Every structure is written in C-alpha cells, then in structure tokens.
C-alpha cells in the first residue's frame, strides 16, 4: 500500500486475539441526528438508506436460508453494527429475525428440536439515540419475536465475546471512517486538501490518504467480526460504493457527480456555511477579521 507520503506502508491486521475495547473514542461523535424531528435521521432515512433494504433485503433472507442454523445452541444471537435509529433499523431487525424463524420452521420438521429464542443486539456509538430506538421498538404495542439489547461502542473495536454471534449485519454504516486522515489537514503535507472537506476533486495523494484510513478501518471491522462470529456464522454487509472501479479522484465530477451527488452536496454545504459566517463577521467586525476567518476555515 502507498502511504500519503508516497512511501509504501503495510496494512496491519488487528491482533489475532483482540481484547474488548468498548467506549473507545474512535467513531464517537459522528452519530445521526437524534429524536424524530424534521431533521432527524429517523425522519430522513426512508428514501436512500431504506432503498438499500428494498434492493438487498432478499439477499439476506437467501443467505440465512443457506446457513446451517444450529439446533443445539440457544439462543440465536444476532447483532446489527451501526444500527442507528428509525424505520430502517427496525425493518432490518424484523427481516433478519423473520428470516431466521422461517428457516427454522422449514428445517424444524427435519429435526426434533423446537424453534430457538432469538437475542438481537442493536450496536452503535454511545451518542446514538438508543432511547428513541427502544421507545419505537414497541410503540405500537407490537410484540417482536426477539429479546433486544443495546451495545454502545465502536465497530472498529471488539464488542462481543469470541464465537458468540450467529449473524452479524451492517447496513449503510461501514463507509463511516474512524478519523479524518491526518495528512489532509496538515498544511506541510503533499496530501493537504486545501479548501475541501472530502476526497472529491482532490489530488491522487489526497485520495490515497482517505483510502488508507478506509482500508485500515475495514480490516479492523472484518477482523473483529471474524473473532466474534461462531463457526458457520453469517456476516451481511451493505454500503454505498462508487459507480465505477478505479481511482476515486477520477470519478468525482461530471457523470459520476450526477449519479451520486452526496459528496458534492457536502462541499457545497460547507462553502455556503463559510460564506454565511463570513458575511456575518463582515457585518460585525469588518473585512480584515473576515478575511482571516475565511483562511482559517479551510485549514481545519
Ligand atoms: C447512515 S447510518 C445507517 C443506519 C442503518 N443501519 C440504516 O441502514 O439506515 C450509519 C450509522 O453507523 C454508525 N456508526 C458510524 N461509525 C460507527 C462506529 N465506528 N461504530 C459503530 N457505529 C458507527 C453511525 O452512528 C450511524 O448510526
């Protein structure tokens, strides 16, 4: 792997036997908008993130049916990593548990054992709105066919005992990075990403700096889940991707931008915010302070 400095750097796997590191600071602070107000994740995730469920949910059901579900170990333990809050969270929980129950009902006739109990873990960073999630879980007085629990911690750390999970899912979450690459904020680095808050439109070294953090993040995610899953367990992951293979910075404008406008929107929002603050500062303190603020805003 090439580092942001252009020097080859090894990708390091997490330890073979990673110890639990709950409540680490990694990933903390990047949670979704809480509650169920107008700007909340719960009210704004049905279209795009919900589309992922409509498009890929059947793959999960299919994968569960292909599993050889254990008849001897009880309960069946399922965890959703990066569960967030809102309709998608509950729909993924319903789909996963229903698929397990269906599969058992089909196969139970072949075995003497009965349908097992299910324990479902909602995992996200500590600032996730678990209160709204658990309030919604039985807001309509519905009884769901599983026992639920919250696990607060980063999915870049180990969150469960060895071999304890039968199914792990993660939907629209592993694209979240554990940190901003240091080089893109370092004015002395060739990967300094002046004037931008994201990889799009950046130079190849900027793209590589982001890619390096992502590789490390994905490696730690997979290494920890491999440790937590029981033999024969299922890991189901969905996340948004770029439309074409190739280097990210080559796909960030033009046709790609039209097809996937998210990152452009981030840049535009940041530029608007800076412009608004600039105007306010201009009104209050005059042009010199305003110019200074604008320069600083692009350095942090
Ligand atoms: C866009 S939401 C996806 C929610 C839901 N799974 C869905 O399909 O709608 C991404 C979630 O990942 C969580 N997340 C981001 N980084 C995380 C980390 N390191 N550990 C645990 N959760 C994380 C965020 O807090 C957020 O709730």
From TrEMBL:
* SUPFAM superfamilies with a match to the protein in the record: S-adenosyl-L-methionine-dependent methyltransferases
UniProt keywords (A-Z) are: Magnesium, Metal-binding
User: What is the organism field in this record?
Assistant: Ceratodon purpureus
Disordered: region residues: 1-26
* Record-level Gene Ontology MF annotations: metal ion binding; methyltransferase activity
* Domain of life the protein comes from: Eukaryota
Protein name as annotated: Uncharacterized protein
Q: Does the keyword Phosphoprotein apply?
A: no
What the entry lists under Pfam families is as follows: Methyltransf_7
């Amino acid at each position: 792997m090439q580092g942001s400095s252009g020097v080859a750097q090894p990708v390091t796997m997490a330890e073979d036997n990673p110890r639990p590191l709950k409540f680490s600071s990694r990933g903390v602070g990047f949670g979704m908008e809480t509650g169920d107000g107008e700007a909340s994740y719960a009210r704004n995730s049905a279209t795009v993130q919900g589309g992922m469920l409509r498009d890929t949910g059947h793959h999960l059901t299919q994968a569960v049916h292909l599993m050889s579900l254990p008849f001897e170990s009880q309960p069946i333990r399922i965890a959703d990593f990066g569960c967030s809050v809102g309709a998608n969270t509950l729909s993924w929980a319903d789909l996963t548990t229903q698929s397990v129950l269906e599969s058992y009902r089909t196969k139970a006739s072949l075995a003497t054992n009965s349908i097992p109990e299910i324990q479902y873990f909602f995992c996200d960073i500590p600032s996730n709105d678990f209160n709204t999630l658990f309030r919604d879980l039985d807001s309509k007085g519905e009884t769901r066919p599983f026992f639920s629990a919250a696990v607060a911690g980063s999915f870049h750390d180990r969150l469960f005992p060895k071999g304890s999970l039968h199914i792990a899912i993660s939907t629209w979450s592993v694209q979240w990075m554990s940190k901003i690459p240091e080089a893109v904020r370092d004015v002395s680095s060739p990967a300094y990403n002046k004037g931008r808050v994201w990889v799009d439109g950046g130079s190849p070294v900027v793209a590589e700096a982001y890619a390096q953090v992502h590789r490390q993040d994905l490696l730690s995610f997979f290494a920890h889940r491999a440790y937590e899953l029981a033999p024969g367990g299922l890991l189901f992951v969905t996340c948004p991707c770029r439309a074409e293979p190739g280097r990210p910075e080559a796909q960030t404008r033009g046709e790609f931008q039209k097809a996937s406008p998210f990152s452009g929107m981030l840049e535009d929002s940041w530029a608007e915010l800076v412009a608004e603050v600039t105007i306010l500062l201009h009104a209050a303190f005059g042009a010199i302070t305003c110019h200074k603020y604008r320069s600083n805003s692009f350095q942090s």
